[in-house]
Write a structure and sequence with these properties.
With 74 residues, the chain is of the alpha+beta class. Helix content is 28%, strand content 22%. It has a two-stranded antiparallel sheet with strand order 1-2. A two-stranded antiparallel sheet has the order 3-4. A hairpin with a 2-residue loop joins β3 and β4 (30-35). The radius of gyration is 12 Å and the shape is globular.
């Protein structure tokens, strides 16, 4: 599973999952988020692992460039 670029509530436990601290999947026309703990059973430190920090850096770059939240951007 790939890391989430957008925050959301975990589908299984209901906790808020910030960008990079979970995984996503597509069900029908909806995107669902799973926190890392529910998806793989691992606990992440509060600052995140390398993948979480890289995703947060990517999100900050998209926000700076004005592309974050734009439809059709990949």
């Amino acid at each position: 599973m790939a890391r989430n670029a957008y925050g959301g509530y975990c589908r299984e436990c209901g906790r808020w999952t910030p960008p990079g601290f979970g995984h996503f999947e597509r069900r029908g026309r909806r995107w669902l988020v799973h926190c890392v703990e529910c998806a793989s059973g691992r606990k992440l430190p509060s600052e995140g692992d390398i993948a979480a920090r890289e995703m947060q850096r990517h999100v900050e770059n998209m926000k700076r460039d004005g592309r974050y939240g734009k439809r059709g951007y990949r």
